[in-house]
Amino acid sequence: MVRRLTVVQVLPALEAGGVERGTLEVARALVEAGHRSIVVSAAGRLARRLVEEGSEHVDWPIGVKSPWTLRWVPRLRRLLARERVDILHARSRMPAWVAWLAWRGMDPARRPRFVTTFHGFYSVGRYSAVMARGERVIAVSEAIRRHVLERYGVPAERVEVIHRGVDPCLYPHGYRPPSRWLEAWYRDNPRLLDRLVLTLPGRLTRLKGHEAFIELVRRLLLARLDVHGLVVGGHEPRHAGYARALERRAEAAGLRGRITFLGYRDDLREIMAVSNVVLSLSEKPESFGRTTLEALSLGVPVVGWDHGGVGEILAAVLPEGRVPPGDMDALTTRVAQVLERPPGVPRTHPFTLERMLARTLALYRELVPAEATHLKETAS
User: Fold this and answer.
1) Is 299 left (phi over 0), alpha (psi -120 to 50) or beta?
2) Which of 82-96, 128-142, 168-182, 359-373 has the lowest average pLDDT?
3) Helix axes 72-82, 93-104, angle to 10 degrees
4) Do 30 and 125 reside in the same domain of the chain?
5) What is the rounded distance in angstroms from the CA atom of residue 226 to the CA atom of residue 18?
6) pTM of this prediction exceeds 0.70
7) Are residues 307 and 375 located together in one domain of the fold?
C-alpha cells in the first residue's frame, strides 16, 4: 500500500506557461497516485482545471514582487503545519522566498522537505539564490544543472536533472490535423498550399531570434526555395512597439507576403504539424525547449542553435538539426538541406511526460520515506 503524501507546490499564478503546465502535470500525477496535492498561487485560467483534476487550490498572490508579499509567510507556515505537509515545492523566485522563510521558521523535526525547481537561467544574485536553497534542487536540463553548480555552488549531490517531457498521446508522431481544421487553415492562408513552411514559435520578445528568422527567409528565397515563414506567438502590451518593428523589418527586407505574424494561437500543435521545419533561434540558451520537443514528437524536423536545452534535445533526437549559435550561413545551409531532403525524425525519444512524472514522484518518496511519514502522523 502506497503511503499518502501531502505535497504543496507554490508558484505566482495559474496562467498559461511552461511552469504552470508542469505544476498541473505533477498535481494530476499526485492525485492519480493517491496522494494529496495542494497548489498555492494566485488564480488564473488553469485554476479551474487544477481543482477539477482533484487538487486543492489556495488563492494567495504570493508571486507579486513586493515586500508586502512577505506578509504571507506566517500564513503559509500555519498552513504547512496544519495540513502536515510532507513536501514543499517552490517553482518560482518570489513564491520561493515566501516558502523558504515559512519553512525556515518551523521545527526542523516537523517541517516538510523543501524542493525547488530551476526552470530558467536565473540571473545570479541574492534574489535568485533562494532557488538554490532547496534540500533537493531539480534542474530541467543538463545546461541548467551546470548553471546551478557553477554559479551557485550547490553540492552536486543536491541537484537532480529531471527533463521536462511531453505526452506522446497529445503529440503523436505523424499527427495530421482534422480535415475541418485543415479546410479553415488553407482557406485563411491559401498561399501556404504550395509553399515550404517554416515556423518559429515563441512570444514576441527580444532575443527570441525573430530577426534571424527574417534573415533566414530572405536568404532561402534568394536561393530560389519557395518558402513562407510563420511567426507564432503573442506579445504583451509593453512589447507592442517591438512587434510593429519586426513587421516593418520584414517588409523592408522585401518579404511582404512571405512572412505571416499569426500572433497568439491555441492550435500551435496543428500549425507545427503542417510545417516543413520548426525553428528554435533564441539568442540566449533556452532552459529546456518545450516547443522543440513537441515538434519532434510530432515527427516534424527542428533546426536550432546548438545551446541550452534545445541543443540537448536535438543531440538526443535529431543531431542534424543542430547549428552553431549565431552562424547564419550554417543555418541557411542546414535548413535548405532539411527542406530538400527531410530527415527521418525518430518515433520515440527519452523526454516523455511519463518519465518526468515518475522521476519527480520518486524524488518526493526518496525525501519522505514511509517510516518518516508514519512518524509524522503518529506524532501529530
Assistant:
1) left
2) 359-373
3) 60
4) yes
5) 34
6) yes
7) no
